[in-house]
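Entry for the shared binder. Reason: the reviewer on the internal report wants the predicted structure included alongside the sequence.
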Amino acid sequence: MSIERRPDHRRPDPRDPRDRPRRLEVDEESVRKSLAGLVLTIVELLRQLMERQALRRVDQGGVSDEQIEKLGLTLMALEKNMDELREHFGLTEDDLNLDLGPLGPLLPRD
């Protein structure tokens, strides 16, 4: 039984640069920044969702003035912490706002 090879299937030649394994050149700093950006993007998405949910609850009523005050202070503190983390990692708001192509940006800005 003989196996026919298609013309585009050739044996690897170790002398041919196209057949050598490709290595991804990355530096530790870019990996750290990329990972931090991904994590902060997820945290920012959750922060915005929590903020919207809190505003809905306030609009619906049933939340005391004291709870509204605590909620506002907590959300402001969280936003401040996010600003500090972005600054620490050298990221901007736009760095965290992934482009989802035809769906638009991940994080809508008010």
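Summary line for the report: Helices lie at 28-60, 65-89, 93-96.
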